[in-house]
Every structure is written in structure tokens, then in C-alpha cells.
Amino acid sequence: MYKLFSYLTPLLILTVFTGCGSDSQDRQIVTDDSAVDSSAEVVTDKSLYLRGEMNDYGVSQTYKLSHHGGALCTFAMLRSDWSPYKFKFADANWSKGSNFGFATPPGVMRQGSSPVKLNPNSRFEELSYEVKYDGVYRFCLIKRSDGYYADVQETDEQQLPSLKEQVKAQE
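The structure assignment produced for this chain is given below.
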């Protein structure tokens, strides 16, 4: 029962907050997987997590990356008044080869910006994402032929994974 509750709680929170946004003028909301390169592939033998100011750099199932449209992605609720958010993708131990920060400075992302190239052997190179609107954002780690990239996009309710998809991704 606790396991089901731990999967259901984040989804319910995300669903409630997606209805509490500002007006949609000038917003680019992802409604499909077009922002993620479907030919991309991420290969890793460790579980990776979104770790940053939105979750005190902690490791939790809520922010565990799972396969989504050819990338590893997760969702996070962000508030514009707390922006910008610093973050990285990393395993539970910040291991070399599984610690993804920006490859070249400044590592700053904004809504609508291109994916940023990452260094999988990062130490202190955090990315920064500037939020214009309160909402749910999809954070993706993408592997391309020339390296790893981070992409962040605002999502709408239809993009949020169902409870069934959440449970399946955790198996």
C-alpha cells in the first residue's frame, strides 16, 4: 500500500498544480515528444535522478529518470518566483560517468532554448533553468552521437505519465 501511495502522491500533486498556472501568452508548452530526439539513446547501468534545488539535491523515486521518447526523463513542479533552478542529472552516489553537468559554461537554459551539451564526469558544473511560469516541466537526458544533452520543456496535463506508466517505469 505504501508503494502505491508513493507513486500516487507525486502524480496527484503535479495534476493539481498544472491547473494553477498563469495565462498562456508566449508559452511554449510541449504537447508531444517532438522536443526529444527519438533516434537518441541513453545507455547506463545505474539509475539516474534529477538532482537540484527543486528537491534539495536528494535522490527519490519521484525524480528518477525513466525512458520517455528516446530519452531519460522526469517531471518536476517549478515556480517562477523561485527561479532560476540549479540542477544536474546524477546517480545516487554522484559517480564519475554518471554525474551530468554542463560541458561548457555558462550552462544556462531558458524556456524555448536549445538542449545544452553535458559532461558525464562533472563535479560542480550545475545547469541553471530560468522559469517564466509556474508549472510542470519535463527534464530529459538525451544521448546523441556527439555526446549527452539536457533538455527542459514545460508540459501540459496530457504529457504527465499515468499512474500505470509510473508504476511500470519503476519495475
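Interim note for the steering committee: The chain has two helices and eleven strands. Confidence is low (pLDDT under 50) at residues 1-41.
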